[in-house]
Amino acid sequence: MTTATMHAAKTNLSKLIADAEAGEDVVIMRGSTPVVRLVPIGVDTRGPRMFGALAGQVRVDDSFDDPLPESELARWEE
Which of 67, 6, 62 is nearest to 38 (CA)? Predict the structure, then answer.
């Protein structure tokens, strides 16, 4: 993992970007605190989605499939 202070990141931004594009984990620090991870666009760092990850945390009301009231339907037609 590559770490750089804010000042070093400003000075060496091109190299840090090249490191991130090459797959290196680049972290920019404010003092001794890590504040930013530099990753190339298009790289998904979240990992794979897990089926059922929100089980028990989401509830769908019984009225979910009920027709919309006329006032709501009218707003969709504006």
Answer: 6
